[in-house]
Each structure stands twice: as C-alpha cells, then as structure tokens.
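Hello forum,

I keep getting stuck at the same step: I have a sequence, I want structure tokens, and every attempt I make locally crashes halfway through. Rather than fight my setup again tonight, could one of you with a working pipeline run this one for me? It's a single chain of 35 residues.
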Amino acid sequence: MPISRNEILDRLRARIDAGEPILGAGAGTGLSAKC
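Reply #2:
Ran it on my machine without issues. Output:
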C-alpha cells in the first residue's frame, strides 16, 4: 500500500525538526539546463 502524502510530510517535518539534512533529487527533460 502506498504511503499517504500526509505521512510523507510528517516524516519530512520530523527530520527537519531533528536537524537532519534533507536531500532532494529529481529528473526532467533537461530543457532547463539547455536554456
């Protein structure tokens, strides 16, 4: 069963409150890099 959006946000906020570093990554078409 997928994790709900609220559960993900709760976990993220808990990490922020604990002072843990937050890493984010994403992938796209690369158009922004070409402009």
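Helices lie at 5-17, 31-34. If your local run keeps crashing, start a new thread with the error log.
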